[in-house]
Fold:
Amino acid sequence: MRQALETIPIWDAFQENTECPLCLLAGQVENSFLTGYLEELVMDSSYRKRVVQDGFCNDHLYKLLSRRDKLGLALTLESILMGILSSDAGTLDAVLPDKVQRLGQPSQCPACEHIASFVRQYCQLIVRMYRDEKEFRDAFARSKGFCIPHTLAFAQNVKEGPRAGSNKEAVAHAFELLRTNLERLSGELRWFIKKHDYRLADAPWNGTEDSVARAIQKLVGLRGMRF
Ligand SMILES: [Zn+2]
Ligand SMILES: [Zn+2]
Structure:
């Protein structure tokens, strides 16, 4: 079957054995944004100006810090500090609260903003594929559904627009999958807990070894993710 280029990452994410294909996609978008920022965007002075203005959030500053390339981050931080220091010492008490409020706020962070806009587009694509492609509807049904925050984001993102009425089926399906998979996870956790009884030491894990981490992802999405 011929696939539109833009739908390939979605197909790939739904083939993965994951607790949430949207977490997976958001993680990929984040990763390529941070790489692109350090490799190219940081050299774009008008873009850097925007970053200096708004700043990255706490989570994304630390994610940038964990990258090997420290030069782009040093340039960014130096510009942010210069921005703060350009205010007179006497006005810092007035300037800093506003500055600090913006720095570290996910709503202002260019990385958070970029990811959120991609997630919105992915939700629209997913619902369109669900509507138009039987094969995708089957893949959707076989998946473990989304995490709780992404189920809510999906419902929110597709509830408006010209085809909102026909999107209801996909939203209902997403909530149904969520319920089924929360039940599956609670069963996995029960087995994980039971397995700590010495009498069951030799019983198989039945794939529940990582159920604690997967249950957390189902509840709150991947680490540091914002919705
Ligand atoms: Zn998710
Ligand atoms: Zn951020």
